[in-house]
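TICKET #2291
ISSUE: user wants both folds in one file
ATTACHMENT 1:
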Amino acid sequence: MRKDEFLQLLRQALAGDVPSGVIEENIRYYDHYISEEVQKGMSEEEVIAEIGDPRLIAHTIEDTTDGTSETGYTDPVDDRSSQSQSQSTYREDSYGSQGNTHTFRLNRWYWKLLAALVIFGIVYLVFMVVGGIFTLLSPLLGPLFVIWIITWIFRMLKRR
């Protein structure tokens, strides 16, 4: 794959999912990076093979860009992004009807916060249950300990 093909695929994969400024910034970055590596002696094909699939890179950029929603970004200036968004939110299923799909990106900060809160809640619940059990058993532990000491003393006296 050549540099212009790579950049075009990256642009298409990002269209409608991130703001146009982010697209241009990433296109400039990869254009500059590929040109630098070619100047160092690598071929364009080698550099692009090293970078990887532009769709995977686009997915990573989408996941790390602030301001994108789960269903995509719509740039009011760019009509192509609204077309891309409508195409990405609807799909043709195996029965031939058009269905609405929704993608949950679980690597967002709020999902991580929710997971941390759930884990904290589970740990808190376990401590409360264990503490409750000890609270219920504590009135019995004193008398049981006294009975155990008395039986131990009587056993020691019997051995003599």
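ATTACHMENT 2:
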Amino acid sequence: AGHRAIPLLGLAFVMAIPMISKLLVDLEVNLAGLDDGTKIATRRLLGGRNGAFFVEDARTTRDSAGRLVIPSQDFVAANDVKTVFGMGGAYLDGTLIVSIVFTNESIDRLVVDRFPSLIGNFKIATSKLVAERKFYAL
């Protein structure tokens, strides 16, 4: 419940959160836009192209700073999380959409690479709601 939405308040804030920073880097999001107020979705994500985020081992995978990519190890242990992956894309207006999946099975990257089209289907199903700025239930 505490992670339904994480505001991207600036580059330093995002880089301080290992999972979110890896997610956005893996999706090739333009992080410079976080500080200058420009849209952060790259041309690569706009429209139809989508990307994937992958953490093979939620218990041990570390980022370039040596931090656990999935820092909430109590959540990992309690739910026996093994692999974490995500899909992301952007709507035509630049709104970023991301889905993160926590699994209790080890999943190979080749299998995860089959899933980004799911975010495309979700974007198609929700594009009218995004255009109407209806992000959350009223």
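RESOLUTION: both attachments delivered.
EXTRA DETAIL ON ATTACHMENT 2: The beta strands are 51-55, 83-90, 96-103.
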